[in-house]
Amino acid sequence: DSIALTTSSNPSIQPIYPYQFYSDEPGYYEDGKFGIRLETIVMVNPYTPKYLTANEQFYEFKPITFVPFETNLIDHSLLNAKQVNWLNNYNAETRYHILPLLAGDQRAINWLNSRTQEVRLESTNRDLASQMYIPSIFSLAFLALFIGQIY
């Protein structure tokens, strides 16, 4: 038996339920030149917004695979404060989840630490520092740990 997806399928009509898993694949492509895609597996998590509306259910996507981004491919001077904050939180979460799995392998530990160092705001973006939203680094720590997919 086989399964085929067609171009007529419309994934937007499918409901999203808590604790489902999806692949988040943002990408950028220049026709005939190059492309880059980042992929993370995310879990749908119930979420309560600051200002709750009546009888509405909200969700957020939480990453469950933690692989460092290639630091040589990121121009940090182009990032704003919110993006730097997100990257630093993601790197901290990556270390939190992955370092225990590397116990005893100092070479791997050194590599992970070098790829997840804190990024500082560039001088052109320092005025945005006061606008940074700083969620708890450990907000994801208590989710079901699903690190079977390291790419």
Task: Report on the architecture of this protein.
- The strands form two sheets. The protein has a three-stranded antiparallel β-sheet with strand order 1-4-5, with no helix packed on it. A two-stranded antiparallel ribbon has the order 2-3.
- It has two helices and five strands, in the order βββββαα.
- It has helices at 81-98, 106-115; strands at residues 21-24, 27-30, 34-37, 40-47, 58-63.
- The chain starts with 20 loop residues before the first strand and ends in a 36-residue tail after the last helix.
- It has one domain (11-139): Creatine Amidinohydrolase (Alpha-Beta Complex), CATH 3.90.230.
- The protein is globular.
The largest sheet has its strands arranged as 1-4-5
Q: How much of the sequence is in beta strands?
A: 15-25%
Tally of alpha and pi helices: 2
What sort of overall outline do the alpha carbons produce when their principal axes are compared? Answer: globular
Radius of gyration equals 18 Å
The CATH class is identified as: Alpha Beta
Q: Summarize the biggest pleated sheet.
A: 3 strands, antiparallel
Corresponding CATH architecture: Alpha-Beta Complex
Query: By CATH's scheme, which homologous superfamily applies?
Result: Creatinase/methionine aminopeptidase superfamily
Spans where pLDDT lies below 50 across 5 or more residues: 1-7, 126-151
